[in-house]
Design brief:
The chain is of the alpha/beta class. It has a single domain, classed as 3-Layer(aba) Sandwich (Rossmann fold). The chain contains 6 helices and 9 strands, in the order βαβαβαβαβαββββα. Strands 2-1-3-4-9-8-7-5-6 form a 9-stranded mixed beta sheet, with helices on both faces. Helix 3 links the parallel strand 3 and strand 4. It starts with a strand and ends with a helix. The model has no long low-confidence stretch (mean pLDDT about 95).
Length: about 250
């Protein structure tokens, strides 16, 4: 059986202050997919529209990766803590999410990817939080916090109802339960002083829809619990199952 082809949306490293670091971040997602047995199809704003459409038309799954803040206008709010949005990335992610939703392929979101899925599905974001950011990647200083899985969710099933999870934290924006989009539910939460429980994992309420997202960065294995490797394996397996009937 051929490996599943998974589109991964990425930020344009040429637009970053440190292109080499940005390219390293991008490569970690590709490595994670390939490690789990998939073929990665990276796309970003530099790719010609016809090539991007071809990749989206051939995909068996979609990974929306981390990156800069989404423009608050996407969820109908003025700027109130959001930093340096990336409109090119917003457009690529929105196009890919529409295509993946129409094709009903599995979707996985990581960090910004979780936030993008929530916004594209009709939710909104907390534009700024203190205390959740780490030193710039790939620095050795990493902020971590506990992750509470919601029993009975797809994520909890994948991770085996793991307890005492400590995950990395590289974000300053978040999804609060009140801002969760229709059709989505929390699969993991974390307490934040002054903000209450925040959504650290989400998924579709449709049991037949494989749509999962996490706020942490499981591709950064040096700061992630080993059990998170199961998430990559489960995602790739779901994409393989989606492809199987057409082979």
């Amino acid at each position: 059986m051929l490996p599943p082809r998974i589109v991964v949306t990425l930020s344009n490293p040429e637009a970053a202050a440190e292109p080499n670091v940005a390219a390293l971040k991008n490569q970690r997602y590709v490595d994670a997919l390939e490690r789990a047995g998939a073929v990665a199809l990276p796309i970003d704003e530099r790719m010609p529209a016809d090539e991007r459409a071809a990749a989206l038309g051939a995909m068996d799954g979609l990974l929306i990766s981390g990156g800069a803040d989404l423009a608050p206008a996407l969820y109908g709010e003025p700027v109130a803590g959001s930093r340096s949005p990336d409109p090119g990335r917003d457009a690529v992610d929105a196009e890919a999410f529409r295509a993946a939703t129409a094709a009903r392929v599995p979707i996985l979101g990581v960090c910004r990817g979780l936030q993008a899925i929530n916004v594209f599905a009709g939710g909104r974001l907390v534009q700024h939080l203190d205390g959740h950011e780490s030193a710039p990647y790939p620095g050795r200083s990493v902020t971590r916090h506990g992750l509470d899985l919601v029993a009975g969710t797809r994520l909890a099933t994948i991770l085996g109802e793991a307890s005492d999870l400590q995950v990395n934290s590289y974000h300053h924006q978040a999804v609060a339960p009140v801002g969760l989009a229709p059709g989505l539910r929390a699969s993991a939460t974390a307490a934040h002083p002054g903000a209450g429980e925040l959504v650290e994992g989400l998924e579709s309420t449709d049991p037949d829809r494989w749509l999962v997202a996490v706020q942490c960065h499981p591709e950064r294995t040096e700061s992630s619990p080993p059990v998170l490797e199961r998430l990559w394996a489960a995602f790739v397996a779901a994409c393989r199952e989606h492809r199987q009937p057409t082979e």
